[in-house]
Specification:
The structure is a homodimer. Chain A has about 450 residues and is α/β, with parallel strands linked by helices. Chain A contains 15 helices and 16 strands. Chain A folds into two domains: about 90 residues, Urease, subunit C, domain 1; about 290 residues, Metal-dependent hydrolases (TIM Barrel). In chain A, the strands form three sheets. In chain A, strands 3-2-1-4-13-14-15-16 form an eight-stranded mixed β-sheet, covered by helices on one side. Chain A has a four-stranded parallel β-sheet with strand order 5-6-7-8, with helices on both faces. Chain A starts with a strand and ends with a helix. The interface between A and B is large, with 69 and 69 residues.
């Protein structure tokens, strides 16, 4: 519980389908942290108990939703760049993870990731990584909305040994946070190629029984699809469809290499696609055909992926890149306009995570998850269209304030729930440890 | 003349070919603004008359060189987005320019552009726009290094009526700034399709006689090439080659649609290519085959293009996008590593503009054009590799200080030679005028 708030904004964008930017609006937030009204500022209630916030040269809009990532890997930002996928994974990322990843690594990495995400406009993040209990705890303490998709993989790690142990530990995290307003927990089976069919079937059964979502890396590269066809005679999307996993609770991440039949199957199923343009480009995985997916009626959301393959968690940068990439690949400059890229980064993201009744747009009754972008700087002027400015010009650098469930987590560009100095110190310590391993 | 300076940096990158990041270095700047030495900080001269600058958690590196733009168009940032090229130009940009562009528009637009460029790490910019005298004056007053490529086009505008008038007015600007340490002036014939052969021949003759460079939009789109072949039987590169314009003084901008023969001709000629990935993607023009150009030994530099098609002037964003785009188009994650993208944004840019004896790298005798990137924030930690951090993670948002010819133009993130508040006010005034035209 906190004070109610009245936020008076020069521009307000609710992010609901078909919404336009409104001028001089007031967003009212109740004691619980939910939106109680949006009204013309001239008609604002001016509740004496409400904290008054004035955003004279700002756009107030829904906080961004980063639908795919591995937050703790932020500690490996820039650790091994410009390498081919397999040497990158086998010679650098996996051995380093094997040596260093534990609950402390995850806590420190997630705090660093949240600091960056909050400062660049994200209010909800999805996370797939080991020790998800540490991630959930860190997010809960920082007051950030988080959907855990706990990993399930056919490889033993420090966190769990067998798929069954991954599942049972993951479900324990879900149980622990079942009453949390901020944390939701779903399945994160790693990929069709890293799990056997019985495990996938078990996940399908449990997800239906427990009404849980599923997030999975699917068809990230052409090579992955070719290998699957060689091994099984099926494309991975066909396998998921046959196993009953392709439905509205499924979040398919990456999806760069898609046939017409793949797209038709996903469209029929109601599954969601999570597009990670920076990661796909940086690892040369390919380009998700977002335009064709949207035309087929598929909901597409955005993710940064981990900082080791991006190298940041700036979802505004992903929205810009998604728009530019769609224009390039379709040879149509009108493809994926700024509004649509923002939708993918907000309400489209909430729909993918199954959280659109709670967040993703500014509507009465939803949580007040919102950000204020300051236009008072050279890179952001003049303002003909605040939305295209936010997407194409801002690079996430002008987010001045952020509220999650009505709680101010970023004030004048400074974090209020995380101690950034301490977070950075921990990052430097990890860097020193990890870099020293390379010298031995 | 100003005080000599000694800048002590945690990391220093000279940007010379093959350079590596050095730790704890001191850059010494003399009274004129040139680099007098680079030494280990332990051996720094500690000249009592020298201003001492300590950059404890920063990378000191060459300032970026934005090799293509139309700075004044920053006043049209976001004015007409997500449109096809011809409606964008014919229904929006050209009529608006026709109505509003004068020397005041250019002065105010260039000041806004420089404010953004300095804050995102650019110290030298190239500019092609009407009223280049206003651009040169504004750059000179702000202390920014600028290469004017004055426009020549077969279309009458407020600035000049005929190609000959464009040329004679442009040469007057050159004469006026011939002793300037900051301003250089070259030819900016708009494009092969917008000029007749006698004018191109005259420019070639004059550029040889006066030892002046030439910058031109060349083969920006597939359509442009097809039209040229239909009309003339030749590809534009062939025409330029036949006319003797393809030589080391030529800067070919965009170059998305290239045949093997085009690449071979450019390689043989020693001409430079200026790659503008954001603009090419946003306008769906195509992708410049940077990797093939580099393999052929062609020098490739980077440009933002105008803010109306980008929508910013952030060259770090271009360097990142150039790297990602090269990886995507070659299907090779090792293509265009961070160091090479930075080279294109610094020394490669200086070479393209013919200014590599003066700027582009930190070397004794060159002008002290350098920037300091602060790593003390969540998005920039931990630091395994300062260069890949600057390219992939920074988005140009962490430039804290900038010196041009030894003069501090950005201090703690604040402009020292431009009044940002006044610059923004002028931008708002132009926006109000221009937006009101749409209502009439």
């Amino acid at each position: 519980m906190s004070n109610p708030k009245e936020i008076h904004a020069r521009w307000l964008y609710t992010g609901s389908a078909g919404a336009e930017v409104l001028e001089h609006q007031t967003l009212c937030i109740d004691e619980v942290g939910r939106i109680s009204a949006i009204v013309d500022s001239a008609d604002a209630p001016k509740n004496r108990d409400a904290e008054q916030v004035h955003l004279d040269n700002h756009l107030l809009m829904p906080g961004l939703i980063n639908c795919h990532g591995h937050s703790a890997m932020t500690l490996l930002r820039g650790y091994a760049d410009d390498l081919a996928l397999m040497p990158w994974l086998q010679d650098h990322i996996w051995p380093t993870e094997g040596r260093w990843v534990d609950a402390d690594f995850v806590t420190d990495g997630v705090n660093l990731a949240m600091a960056e995400m909050i400062k660049t406009g994200t209010t909800t993040f999805s996370d797939q990584y080991f020790f998800p209990d540490a991630t959930a705890k860190a997010a809960s303490e920082a007051g950030m909305r988080c959907q855990i998709n706990f990993p399930v993989i056919n490889v033993p790690t420090q966190w769990a040994q067998t798929p069954n142990e991954y599942i049972s530990k993951g479900l324990q995290v879900r149980e622990r946070y079942k009453n949390s307003a901020l944390i939701s927990v779903i399945f994160g089976p790693h990929a069709p190629y890293s799990l056997d069919e019985p495990t996938l079937q078990r996940i399908r059964t449990l997800s239906h029984e427990l009404d849980m979502g599923v997030q999975m890396h699917v068809q990230e590269t052409k090579t992955e699809v070719l290998h699957a066809v060689e091994l099984t005679g099926e494309r991975p999307i066909t396998t998921l469809d046959r196993l009953g996993l392709l439905d509205p609770s499924m979040q398919c991440v990456h999806m760069t290499s898609l046939s017409k039949d793949d797209i038709a199957r996903v469209a029929r199923s109601g599954a969601h696609v999570i597009h990670c343009p920076s990661s796909n480009m940086k690892l040369a995985s390919g380009a998700c055909p977002v335009h064709s997916l949207l035309k087929a009626g598929i909901n597409v959301a955005l993710g940064t992926d981990g900082a080791a393959s991006n190298n940041g968690l700036n979802l505004f940068a992903e929205a810009r890149l998604a728009a530019l990439l769609a224009k390039l690949t379709t040879e149509d400059p009108a493809a994926l306009p700024a509004e649509q890229a923002l939708y993918m980064a907000t309400l489209g993201g909430a729909r993918a995570l199954g959280l659109d009744h709670e967040t993703g747009s500014l509507e009465t009754g939803k949580w007040a998850d919102c950000i204020a972008i300051n236009f008072d700087s050279a890179a952001m002027q003049p303002v003909y269209n605040p939305l295209s400015q936010a997407v194409y010009a801002g690079h996430g650098a002008h987010v001045e304030a952020s509220w999650i469930a009505g709680r101010l987590v970023l004030k004048n560009g400074k974090l209020t729930t995380l101690d950034e100095t301490a977070v950075l110190q921990r990052a430097v310590q990890w860097r020193d440890k990890i870099a020293s391993q390379d010298l031995n």
